[in-house]
Design goal:
The protein is flat and about 40 Å long. The chain starts with a helix and ends with a helix. The relative contact order is 0.10. The protein is mainly alpha-helical.
Length: 64
Amino acid sequence: MAISLSVVVLLAVILVVLIRGGNLKTGPAVVAILFGFFLASSTMAEEVNSFLQSIATMISDIKL
């Protein structure tokens, strides 16, 4: 849950920066947000979540 929340916050910050910087207009941003909401309620949500979890695990296993 903590990873999910931090990813949402990170993506929200990126979205705001892109809109304010003029690289992303409001219309496509709204479409992207709606796509995220509909994707979260679809049957693909579990696969997307497990994919992101595996990436987070892989990154945390990297030893510097």
